[in-house]
């Protein structure tokens, strides 16, 4: 089995259009949540979101090609270009066949679907663009990244709701571990801040309606939480076999030592209140790493700011770690960037790797009123400096799907 390491991370988030800016603003406690500008949301009960600001796809993609990409694909390609540049990786010759791409997407091209359906209803089928299908399909993020990077190995898309990004990293890790590839670009991307996307989630009463105070609307693990805030963006990791990374002199940020996946087998949208499925995913990742649960220092939580998820995740952590749960520093990045759906796991894994590489744990913003049912250490006082050896990154999604990545501080 190959050892698998992380040699780069990249991100496009509501608090920064690159990983360095995003990380800086995350540690500073800056919020990316504001009133929606993408469309007129005045008739909606929820009118706030974590939008990407001042993003120009032409900085990364030729104009003609950018016009034939949905926004989530543009984010993924931009993140991949920054990832390739930061890691110094160039794929040439036969090496391209040993490099692959797995990028998770939850919903895909809603904006294009809405626009083209309006054209169809108004003007008939002859007005539909011939690029309609290639633009909207979820695997086009991975496909376009493969084209731009020239990676000719596995080219896949995980579509597992809000666990898509995490499952993609897990699958990429497995491919390298089993020697199917030397290099994998992996993570998640999403952009569904559209009228239809918002209408669907508001109909479920899943979104926060704290419209008068956007920056504190996302309140993971807080007693006053009233729903999640939708975000958009992408987060990618560069994974390599340790031998490949060493051979090219790459900087190593962390090691991947475990991946866990499970199903609640319970309900379309709600986890069981005992958090059993979430616990199984965390236990599986820890078991694969062959470590004791007491060795985990940090958890980058799914932490959506919904009543049920945060309660269940807290119970699951207690189930897995027992008394040690109180000693674990837990961060919920969604308090500042919102919930990126299929992109969440990629961005949050990137932040978990940054924690291992820098020794800084981000805080969880908007911890205003303590919830007696959520009584762990959520880093409510902001960032803290701490030497972290093992960090878990959790993602859970509709359909009862759960994913967990376990990263380790790199040691030769």
From TrEMBL:
Residues 1-409 form the Ketosynthase family 3 (KS3) domain. GO terms for molecular function: 3-oxoacyl-[acyl-carrier-protein] synthase activity. The active site is at residue 162. It catalyses: a fatty acyl-[ACP] + malonyl-[ACP] + H(+) = a 3-oxoacyl-[ACP] + holo-[ACP] + CO2; (9Z)-hexadecenoyl-[ACP] + malonyl-[ACP] + H(+) = 3-oxo-(11Z)-octadecenoyl-[ACP] + holo-[ACP] + CO2. SMART domains: PKS_KS. Its EC number is 2.3.1.179. One of its GO terms (biological process) is fatty acid biosynthetic process. SUPFAM superfamilies: Thiolase-like (SSF53901). Keywords: Acyltransferase, Fatty acid biosynthesis, Fatty acid metabolism, Lipid biosynthesis, Lipid metabolism, Transferase. GO terms for cellular component: cytosol. InterPro entries: 3-oxoacyl-ACP_synth-2, Beta-ketoacyl_synthase, Ketoacyl_synth_AS, Ketoacyl_synth_C, Ketoacyl_synth_N, PKS_Beta-ketoAc_synthase_dom, Thiolase-like. Pathway: Lipid metabolism; fatty acid biosynthesis. Belongs to the thiolase-like superfamily. Beta-ketoacyl-ACP synthases family. Involved in the type II fatty acid elongation cycle. Catalyzes the elongation of a wide range of acyl-ACP by the addition of two carbons from malonyl-ACP to an acyl acceptor. Can efficiently catalyze the conversion of palmitoleoyl-ACP (cis-hexadec-9-enoyl-ACP) to cis-vaccenoyl-ACP (cis-octadec-11-enoyl-ACP), an essential step in the thermal regulation of fatty acid composition. NCBIfam families: fabF, PRK06333.1, PRK07314.1. This is 3-oxoacyl-[acyl-carrier-protein] synthase 2. The gene is fabF.
């Amino acid at each position: 089995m190959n050892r698998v390491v992380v040699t780069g991370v990249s991100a496009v988030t509501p608090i920064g259009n690159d990983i360095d800016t995003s990380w800086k603003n995350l540690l500073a406690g800056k919020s990316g949540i504001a009133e929606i500008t993408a469309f007129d949301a005045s008739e909606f009960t929820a009118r706030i979101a974590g939008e990407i600001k001042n993003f120009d796809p032409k900085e990364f993609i030729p104009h003609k090609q950018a016009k034939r990409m949905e926004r989530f694909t543009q984010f993924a390609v931009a993140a991949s270009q920054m990832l390739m540049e930061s890691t110094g990786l160039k794929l040439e010759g036969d090496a391209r066949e040993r490099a692959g791409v797995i990028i998770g997407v939850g919903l895909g091209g809603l904006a294009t679907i809405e626009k083209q359906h309006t054209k169809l209803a108004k003007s008939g089928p002859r007005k539909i663009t011939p690029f309609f299908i290639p633009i909207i399909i979820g695997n086009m993020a991975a496909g376009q990244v493969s084209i731009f990077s020239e990676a000719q190995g596995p080219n896949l898309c995980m579509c597992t709701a809000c666990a898509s990004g995490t499952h993609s990293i897990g699958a990429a890790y497995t491919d390298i571990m089993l020697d199917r590839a030397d290099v994998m670009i992996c993570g998640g991307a999403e952009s569904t801040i559209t009228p239809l996307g918002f209408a669907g989630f508001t109909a479920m009463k899943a979104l926060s309606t704290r419209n008068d105070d956007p920056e504190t609307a996302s309140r993971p693990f807080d007693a006053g939480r009233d729903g999640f805030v939708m975000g958009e963006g992408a987060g990618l990791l560069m994974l390599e076999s340790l031998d490949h990374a060493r051979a090219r002199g790459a900087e190593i940020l962390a090691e991947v030592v475990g991946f866990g996946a499970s199903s609640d087998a319970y309900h379309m949208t709600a986890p069981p209140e005992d958090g059993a499925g979430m616990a199984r995913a965390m236990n599986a990742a820890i078991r694969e790493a062959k470590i004791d649960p007491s060795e985990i220092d940090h958890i980058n939580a799914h932490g959506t700011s919904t009543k049920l998820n945060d309660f269940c995740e807290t119970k699951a952590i207690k189930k897995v770690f027992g008394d040690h749960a109180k000693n674990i520093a837990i961060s919920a990045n969604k308090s500042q960037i919102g919930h990126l759906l299929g992109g969440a796991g990629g961005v949050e894994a990137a932040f978990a790797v940054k924690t291992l590489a820098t020794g800084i744990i981000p805080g969880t913003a908007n911890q205003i009123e303590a919830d007696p049912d959520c009584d762990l250490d959520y880093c409510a006082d902001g960032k803290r400096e701490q030497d972290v050896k093992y960090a878990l990154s959790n993602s859970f999604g509709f359909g009862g799907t759960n994913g967990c990545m376990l990263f380790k501080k790199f040691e030769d």
